[in-house]
Amino acid sequence: MALATRWWSKTILYGSVIAFVLIAAGALGTRFGVWPFTIGLLMFAIGALLGMIGVITGVIALIVVLARGRVTERNGVLIGAAVCLVIAALIVPQFKAAFSVPPIHNISTDVADPPAFSAVLPLRGANSNPVDFDAAKLAPLQEKAYPWVKPLDSTLPPDQAFDRSLDVLKAMSIAIVDANKANGIIEGTATTFWFGFKDDIVVRIRPQGTGSRIDLHSVSRVGQGDSGLNAKRIGEFISRFG
């Protein structure tokens, strides 16, 4: 039994290290262009699976180790299980977010006449998702999942609303690609921290009475779903704009 317990200790410890390396390498390798995002996501998924298995086996092994007084094996089990718990704490919310929203990656505050992209199009690449908003398909899903994604009505005149929008985008760490004040159009790109996924956003400012109407359109370059990030980005803009 001592041999079996020793095997558990080493396996959990080594497995936790492998899981951590796979998750970190998968994300960072994708961000820096070492491999395509599909490989990075596969590595991330394998690492996440190993981490979840490590949590379960770690608890079982810890019970056995403590019950039998295997002090020399306790540290390995504790460290391995702790690393797996950290991994689980990081990835479970991400998976929960991904499966709690529809698998869409194209969000617009104006589903009938979405703001059009122009300046960012050459940057998206031939294999990127299309930027056209399919209202018949996407509008019902968007309305159900993100009913608060609506146009922003502002009392600011268009020129001031434009300046305010530009400031908000910069505060959100969105790289500005083009800002055309005459047309009331701002285009930019947001980059996720770990994988370096890029989402493009266009803001359109139009006069409305003595104020302005502001519409946003945010689209992921790759992937089927976005875990709600495009809608969240629009919500953050609206909240920051005030």
What pattern of helices and strands is seen along the backbone? HHHEHHEHEEEEH
Oligomer: single chain
Helix and strand composition category: alpha+beta
Overall outline: elongated
Tally of separate domains: 2
Cα-to-Cα separation, first versus last residue: 64 Å
| Number of contiguous helices | 7
Can you summarize the main beta sheet?
Answer: 6 strands, antiparallel
**Proportion of residues in helical segments:** 40-55%
List unreliable stretches of 5+ residues.
1-5
Task: Give the CATH architecture of the largest domain.
Answer: 2-Layer Sandwich
Overall strand count: 6
DSSP strand content = 15-25%
Radius of gyration, whole Å: 23 Å
By CATH reckoning, the class of the largest domain would read Alpha Beta
CATH topology of the largest domain: Alpha-D-Glucose-1,6-Bisphosphate, Chain A, domain 4
- The average pLDDT value, as a whole number, equals 92
Compact description:
With 242 residues, the protein is an alpha+beta fold. Helix content is 55%, strand content 17%.
